[in-house]
Amino acid sequence: MPSFSHNSIHQEQTIGGPIEFSGVGLHSGAPVKMRLLPAPAGSGIVFRRTDLDNFEISATGRNVAKVSYATSLMRQGVLISTTEHLLSALIGMGVDNVIVELDNLELPILDGSAKPYVEAFVTAGIRGQRRRREYIKVTKPVEVREGNKFIGVYPGDGYSIEYEIDFPEPIGHDSFVVDLETETYDAEIAAARTFGYKADEQKLRDMGLIRGAGPQNAIILTKRGPENGPLRYTDEFVRHKVLDLIGDLALAGKRIQGKVVAVRAGHAMHTALVSRLMKDRSAWELAHAPVVKATEIEPEAARHVGKAALVGA
To answer: What is this enzyme's catalytic activity, as reactions (predicted)?
Structure first.
């Protein structure tokens, strides 16, 4: 299948121009407008609350807040919630530097996956910058365990992920393996949607969660299977967990070079791994990518290839 990938690009990149989104937050149900802007090399991913005097929060582990049903950032009492899908798309598509403006506390859920972000990136284009990309190269194992849940990161080439899930029926046990250096995020991961059990809906709403959830942005599961099928992948559930993991590990501040293994993990364990890795300075080093000529993906070419990559996703 033709695909659109930046995995071999070793310079930092940003988007080719402003991109706008609007929608509602998955948990808050609140309307939100969001705009992504190109950012200078070396600036990373920075969120900006336009409704709060452009207050900025960097997408780094030190700003992680509540992480039960979504990954949120907080600085000086200002919250930005449900960041994982956008962060996943940025890492997956090789976008290093971007400003994310939004006028409410939660990012829009869109269709429940990262696919709308990928489509927008390839339409706007992705522009190479004259700065070598730095990676967090894992040099020794770092692990987090909690009962029968586990996540660890190990030395390795590329950025490989092994994820194993075990949910109540109709999902059950499944696993998925991907290497973002050799397989493409847009074709393998981006279209996988978030999911939930219909039996849990009222309990979660009573907790103030999933107020913006519906069949248009989540797979709704009954004992018989998806209420709003068909699935985009036969193993869409585990692929979505990989999508979330990539977004949560983006909070390390740079793309990871190593192997990640997760078993029955979730947002809290994902971000706990980031925290433990960052605190153990003996477990990683900054590594520069080889020098190559900066490139620019033209919007028209990107649009054509991006559509080809997502056909049938």
So the answer is: a UDP-3-O-[(3R)-3-hydroxyacyl]-N-acetyl-alpha-D-glucosamine + H2O = a UDP-3-O-[(3R)-3-hydroxyacyl]-alpha-D-glucosamine + acetate
